[in-house]
């Protein structure tokens, strides 16, 4: 995992170097958020993305949708006021966005498994426990 994390660190440093050279202000939270997403994508999913330079990548978009708050104002107030009723109700109500994001990640995982099954056994990453 260390080489993959180091690779994401190199991408982060190259993105930060642009700001250091220019002296412009920047959003550090966005930079570290992109770094974190790059690490998760490479370590957990085996995909290399530069989420800072490619914010429209499907993996980036679906990851952001996954972590966005799911409840709007009125639903949030009802959930806080009546959690014993609303939480089970929210779990069974259809949610198009949740289904779309879950479908994307399930398909991504299936594709990664299929690609690893097709790889030469000598080139597959081995994990030590």
TrEMBL record:
Keywords: Endoplasmic reticulum, Fatty acid metabolism, Heme, Iron, Lipid metabolism, Lyase, Membrane, Metal-binding, Microsome, Monooxygenase, Oxidoreductase, Transmembrane, Transmembrane helix. It is an enzyme of class 1 (oxidoreductase). Its main location: endoplasmic reticulum. InterPro entries: Cyt_P450 (IPR001128), Cyt_P450_E_CYP3A (IPR008072), Cyt_P450_sf (IPR036396), Cytochrome_P450_3A (IPR050705). Pfam families: p450. Its EC number is 1.14.14.-. Gene3D superfamilies: Cytochrome P450. It is found in: Endoplasmic reticulum membrane; Microsome membrane. Belongs to the cytochrome P450 family. This is Cytochrome P450 3A. It comes from Phrynosoma platyrhinos.
């Amino acid at each position: 995992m260390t080489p993959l994390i180091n690779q994401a660190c190199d991408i982060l440093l190259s993105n930060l170097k642009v700001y250091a050279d220019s002296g412009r202000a920047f959003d550090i939270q966005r930079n570290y958020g992109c770094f974190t997403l790059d690490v998760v994508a490479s370590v957990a999913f085996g995909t290399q993305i530069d989420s800072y330079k490619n914010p429209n990548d499907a993996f980036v978009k679906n990851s952001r949708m996954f972590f966005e708050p799911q409840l709007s104002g009125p639903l949030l107030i009802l959930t806080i006021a009546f959690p014993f009723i609303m939480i089970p109700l929210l779990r069974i109500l259809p949610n198009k966005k949740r289904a779309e994001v879950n479908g994307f990640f399930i398909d991504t995982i299936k594709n990664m498994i299929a690609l690893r099954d097709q790889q030469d056994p000598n080139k597959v990453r081995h994990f030590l426990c």
